[in-house]
Structures are given as C-alpha cells and as structure tokens.
Q: What sequence folds into this?
C-alpha cells in the first residue's frame, strides 16, 4: 500500500516528495534483491534475515508471503532431507569439476574426483549439457591422458560388480 506523495510549494514551484516515514527506494530495492537471492539459495538463516529486512523496508506483501512460505518449507525438512540435498549439491559440483578437468586434460584432478565418489555413484553415466559422457568429452576435447585414464578405469570395473552394478545386473537378468 503506497502512501500519498506530499506536495510542497516553494517559491511558486511544486515539488513532489515521498513522506518522510517511507523507506527509501534503494533500501526497498536492496531488501527485495536480498529476499530473492535468499529464496534461490535455499538457506534458512539467510532467508529468515531477508524476510525481516523485507518487512522493515516495506517490500510488497506478495513477495514477503512467498518467502515466508519457502522459509516454512525449509524449516519443516527432516535431517535426512537436508543431508540428501547436501549430497546432491556436492555430487553436482563434483560432476561439473570432472568435466572441467577433463577439458584441461588434468588426469590427477579427475582421478581424485572419481576416487572420492561413493560406490553407488556411476560416473560412467554422467552427461554434460550436450549429452556427452566423460569419455566422449575427453575424446572430443583431445584430452588424451584423461581419455586413456577413463578407459582404463572403465575396463578395471568387473562386469556385474562395482559402482551401481546391482541395478544394471538386475536389468540384464530381466532382459535374458
């Protein structure tokens, strides 16, 4: 709800100014941006602070209500949900880094990432935004050292065992 502008007459000129008790536009805009950044970040603490700042700066009620609903949703998550989300974020970062290091032909970094993965993670199935696997990407980028390493890693995994193989062997059993 906007307050009416105060009109002041000085030397015959009309000057429009907002009431003195209204927060400045810059402050409101900063609170609005902080609120939306906290919404995207999914951080409870930052979102709680941003909601409070948005209320003080008189950000539109619709935006504050949306943020409050998201805050309630974040606060109602279980510890398992939080751990699963953190693991997913970590895995996503590792995947991104792996493709980056393949492009740089950095075998040591790729090896470190792949060895740090949980046994249930199938790095062979990772795809970039173009649908390329790590091995295909290494070949395309002419990252020969990484390509050789990935080929040897893939061949070292025995069939029917290794990362994610329980599901793949079960599928193979159904297909036969």
A:
């Amino acid at each position: 709800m906007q307050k009416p502008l105060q009109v002041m007459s000085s030397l015959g000129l009309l000057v429009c100014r907002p009431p003195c008790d209204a927060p400045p536009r810059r402050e409101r805009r900063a609170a609005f941006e902080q609120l939306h950044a906290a919404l995207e970040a999914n951080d409870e603490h930052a979102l709680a602070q941003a909601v409070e700042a948005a209320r003080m700066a008189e950000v539109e009620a619709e935006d504050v209500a949306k943020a409050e609903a998201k805050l309630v949703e974040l606060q109602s998550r279980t510890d398992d949900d939080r751990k699963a989300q953190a693991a997913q974020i970590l895995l996503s970062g590792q995947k991104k880094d792996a493709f980056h290091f393949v492009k740089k032909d950095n075998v040591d970094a790729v090896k470190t990432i792949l060895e740090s993965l949980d046994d249930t993670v199938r790095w062979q199935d990772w795809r970039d935004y173009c649908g390329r696997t790590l091995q295909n990407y290494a070949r395309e980028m002419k990252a020969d050292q990484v390509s050789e390493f990935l080929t040897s890693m893939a061949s070292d995994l025995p069939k029917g065992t290794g990362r994610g193989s329980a599901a793949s062997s079960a599928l193979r059993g159904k297909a036969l």
Summary: Residues 80-163 form one domain. The helical segments are 25-41, 44-56, 61-75, 79-103, 107-116, 134-140, 144-156, 165-175. Confidence is low (pLDDT under 50) at residues 160-176.
